[in-house]
Design brief:
Menaquinone_biosynth, D-Maltodextrin-Binding Protein, domain 2, binds the ligand C=C(O[C@@H]1C=C(C(=O)O)C=C[C@H]1O)C(=O)O, 11 strands, 5-stranded mixed beta sheet, 2 domains, 35% helix, alpha/beta, 9 helices, 6-stranded mixed beta sheet, Chorismate dehydratase
């Protein structure tokens, strides 16, 4: 490729370990990096504004062509902590659920759990802007990312979507993966994977760089999020995509 590869990543704390090793890495000579919330970068990849992005896997069916280019992802094999249904009342008393406009995968996962696992009859409400202050009474809300870590301090009832997926299917879950909309040079992909692995192998270094008082990031990066895109995670992803079809 003559020009630089355009890469978009998620702007949340969960992506810091993946991006840690890019600074000062040789791969930066081959690429330009931007960050935004997941639904935004999903649209950028679909529209061809970027070549590679850490996108919600739920958008894969919308892509004419896709390639998973990296061995790392935003996944979980138990509670993920930052993708939850938050409520003031227990699950079966919820009447309406606000959906997170920043998410694609978790919205699809929530709909699946509501219909096939929890079997709730609730009204689902799309959002386009801040909505967390509407999580009151029998109105619950799906929240993802850093805002979910904050909401954990507010809502008495917290239903973790990754934990419930694992109970439902006995498989791990993949929220987002590094996906390109065109084939990319092997040399770039190798350097990209090398850069991604650096922070994953140095979580103490990542935590030291990101002071955060709301939630323990060592726990988040080592117990909640699971970064390696293993065969079991690929199986979980295929299972999820087959539910979407
Ligand atoms: C675990 C998370 O995974 C995220 C959830 C996504 C989604 O719901 O579409 C997309 C990207 C990930 O950053 C999180 O953001 O809390």
């Amino acid at each position: 490729m003559e020009r630089k590869v355009k890469v978009a990543a998620v702007s949340y704390l969960n992506t810091k370990p993946l991006l840690f090793g890019f600074r000062d890495h040789p791969v930066m000579k081959m690429m330009d990096l931007s960050v935004d919330y997941p639904a935004k970068i999903a649209q950028q990849l679909i529209d061809g504004e970027v070549d590679v992005a850490l996108v919600p896997v739920a958008i894969i069916p919308k892509m004419k062509e896709y390639h998973i280019i990296a061995d790392f992802c935003i996944g979980a094999d138990g509670p993920v902590a930052s993708v939850c249904l938050f409520s003031e009342v227990p699950l079966h008393e919820i009447k309406r659920i606000y959906l997170d406009y920043q998410s694609r995968t978790s919205v699809a996962l929530l709909k699946l759990l509501v219909r096939d696992y929890w079997k709730l009859s609730v009204e689902l409400i799309e959002t386009t802007d801040d909505y967390q202050d509407k999580i009151k009474g029998t109105d619950a809300g799906l929240v993802i990312g850093d805002r979910a870590l904050e909401q954990r301090k507010v809502s008495p009832y917290i239903y973790d979507l990754a934990e419930n997926w694992v109970r439902f299917t006995s498989l791990p879950f993949v929220f987002a993966a590094w996906i390109s909309n065109k084939p990319l040079p092997v040399a770039f992909i190798q350097e990209f994977n090398n850069a991604s692995s650096i922070g994953i192998n140095n979580i103490p270094g990542v935590v030291a760089e990101n002071p955060y008082s709301v939630y323990d990031l060592t726990t988040y990066y080592t117990q909640n999020i699971s970064y390696p895109l293993t065969p079991a995670k690929r199986q979980g992803m295929q299972q999820f995509l087959s539910y979407l079809r």
